[in-house]
# Entry
Amino acid sequence: MATAARKTIPIAVADDGLVPLYAAQQKIYPRSVQGLFARWRWAMVVLTQLFFYGMPWVQWGQRQAMLFDLEARRFYIFNLVLYPQDFIYLTGLLVVSALSLFLFTAVAGRLWCGFACPQTVYSEIFMWIERHIEGDRTARMRLDGGGFSAEKLLKKAAKHTVWIALALFTGFSFVAYFTPARELLHDLLHSEISAWNLFWVLFYGFATYGNAGFMREQVCKYMCPYARFQSAMFDKDTLIVSYDAGRGEPRGARSRKADPAALNLGACVDCTLCVQVCPTGIDIRQGLQYECIGCAACVDVCDGVMDKMGYARGLVRFATQNGIANHWSPAQMLRRVFRPRVLVYTLVLWALIIGLLVSLALRTPLKVDVVRDRAALSRIVAGGQLENIYRLQLMNATESPQRYRIAAHGLDGLAMASDEWVEVDAVQSRWVVVRLHIPYGSAPPGPHPMAFDIQSADGVTRVTEKSTFIVPR
# Structure
């Protein structure tokens, strides 16, 4: 990723001749902006938060539609009930998410960061609250720069009260994915909430309050690793927020009626609004920088300035480095965006998604684990029978009680010496002791492969698990 050289910043030298290694952090006051990308950004805020805050209250039958019950080791996602043994699906989801991030980054840079990342979403919400209580950029700067006053105290107190309330509700909603929301609310209102649940509500609320209210751009610039390795996924055909220096330079102020050609000026009026709306405080005119999160706020505000000046839009726009350098049209840039690298990412991603969905659709709602009884591997019982004892864990992943028939095969004369039928409650697991017999002397000494067949009473579900039958020497 090519990064344009920044302007030289004078180094402050203390009276004693020492040069400080760290510059003081300058607070950023982003200006509000209206436009196409701002509307898209708020649409993503609404969609993601409706899902996050609303899903814990959605019921599916007699339970919460999405619940990750760590204590019971069951994960409910609508009609799916997953056990820890289904960890492979979580692995597949993580691989799909990572590959999606690679694909989106190769196509259009940090779209995730600018429009859907939780840090961006909550920062946007907290800044919206801040603007409505303290005012826009100039009013906030004046308020912070002024001395103590009753107005300042009232506005700051109101802002932080709303921030804390929203942060605590966010923490509550997060915990509600692991403890049923209605149960959690009841315990909270009656002061019966467990210490762990209270800890995580406060911890997640504190993290939201700190990250979205105070740290904001510092999380994106210094804490998030994505900003550091994104350059490995960029190339000169990646769509990024770009400033068209060939059209904009030399920049300079002028009246609306002035002819920029006569003044030997480019389209940029040097209003610095692109800097004022940037949530990370960078100047996009200095080229692509790792701090840019691709939110396109500078695109919206610059288009507004171009409209007022009567110039064509697109001085700052989503474009590729090759497109800017070669003066390509949007259609030419889009053709280069869908290059072999992107197509390979897309094909692999869809193959993984389809494979994951097919695997979930064909998943058997019964899990069986076979464990040999190590206390008595093999013994002779009454009637001249040789007995092996097994322990079977049956996990019913359906939401209705099930009755299963256990059978065994693989050896001549192999017979069940325990109950064949077992009942397992809905979304429960049960350990069952199974005794198998063969006539003594019917098989040579040593381990012999055999298998258990477990079938539901309705014949829909059937699982086969291999094991061994031990014949002593």
Summary: The first strand starts at residue 59 and ends at 60. Confidence is low (pLDDT under 50) at residues 1-9. The CA atoms of residues 250 and 265 lie 5 Å apart.
